Amino acid sequence: MRKARDLLGLPVVDLELGENIGEVRDVLFSPEGTFHSFLLERGGLLSVARILSRGALHSIGEDAIITQSRSSIEEYRDEVGLIRSLIDGDIHFVGKDVLTTSGTLLGSVEDVYLDENLHTIVGYEISEGFLMDLRQGRKLLHASPTIMMGADNLIVPDDTELTEAL
């Protein structure tokens, strides 16, 4: 497993020319919880967001993301509004509270764990607060179809148990 947050800030390198062509600013996911793309530049009033889609990746190393060429970078508009992001999108993971269906707060999402191929979310790193993190470490909420991601919270069944984070 690999934490999505560990990918933020990695340089994106063009394999043909060996040039740095961007930096990972966010990790985007499909509504089904599969890896969609890396956000390289956020859009603004006069600019369009740029992404590197999963299909354009050559490799994902410990220190850089490699793509076949600069032409792999695409303009991006989430016209449907369903794409989720790790940090900063309209629908994002980090900072959301995790509540049971009966209203018990389990903690807040600090990171997302991806499988080794970065295809699928396999879990969520949960913080129960600064002091609890220091005393017991962060927890892991395993990904499940029973988790409902709302605008402000992740809602989980009452019998959900957190395990030790990796």
From TrEMBL:
<feature type="domain" description="PRC-barrel">
    <location>
        <begin position="3"/>
        <end position="57"/>
    </location>
</feature>
<dbReference type="InterPro" id="IPR027275">
    <property type="entry name" value="PRC-brl_dom"/>
</dbReference>
<feature type="domain" description="PRC-barrel">
    <location>
        <begin position="93"/>
        <end position="161"/>
    </location>
</feature>
<dbReference type="InterPro" id="IPR011033">
    <property type="entry name" value="PRC_barrel-like_sf"/>
</dbReference>
<protein>
    <submittedName>
        <fullName>PRC-barrel domain-containing protein</fullName>
    </submittedName>
</protein>
<dbReference type="Pfam" id="PF05239">
    <property type="entry name" value="PRC"/>
</dbReference>
